[in-house]
């Protein structure tokens, strides 16, 4: 969970002109909008948690997966699990805004 040059959250880095040429002293842009893509095959039991730093600052990946998996086994919907994860992040002290979605059935 780093930042760009210690000053800019990665989720906000794409359009920040001060981190791009010619406004920096580097030989190139510190950040770019060119995506890195990775394709993965999902099974029927897999799910996805997509969240911003306001969530990930209070959760490590495995804790989030474990909690979501536990709630899914109880029959909770992706929408309700998303709300529960946000609530838990707030209880853990997140002071940032939180955007989060849990999804499954991606096959």
TrEMBL record:
Pfam families: PP2C (PF00481). PROSITE patterns: PPM_2 (PS51746). Residues 1-105 form the PPM-type phosphatase domain. InterPro entries: PP2C, PPM-type-like_dom_sf, PPM-type_phosphatase-like_dom. GO terms for molecular function: protein serine/threonine phosphatase activity. This is PPM-type phosphatase domain-containing protein. It comes from Paramoeba aestuarina. The lineage of its organism: Eukaryota, Amoebozoa, Discosea, Flabellinia, Dactylopodida.
